[in-house]
Amino acid sequence: MKSAQSRKSVKSSRINLDRTRARVWALQILYQWDVVNNKDSLSEMFEDVLLTRKISNVRIPYIKRIVSELDDQRELIDVALNEVLQNWRLERLSVIDRSILRIAALEMLCFPDIPPKVSILEGVRLAELYGGNESPGFVNGVLDALMPRVK
Fold it and tell me: Which residue segment(s) compose the domain that 63 sits in?
């Protein structure tokens, strides 16, 4: 028989895995929005994706949270990122790096239930998987510079 703490640990691990995979979906949606048609809201883009792709029901709430908050807070996030980017402007970054930074910065600045270090780690992991050779270090540096702004 598993102990209560063991069951809690397994449940916590599952939630973290689902959030990690939700971030990947959010990255795809944000990338598509940025490249194809950034006139629609991210939430509308997400609804279109739901019509054509099979996404686990347990991941949908966190994806929805990310895209709806980015719709509402994108300007604030972009200003914060532009303030910490040294010798760069957000619009000059690759779409992947920009999208990863937006997701991680959103979590850091607007999701108090997600520890900022987790957001940084997840951003770096996304950069390792989907970015260029320099992306992980770049993403890490930008998000570290953003850390003092986290309340």
Answer: 4-149
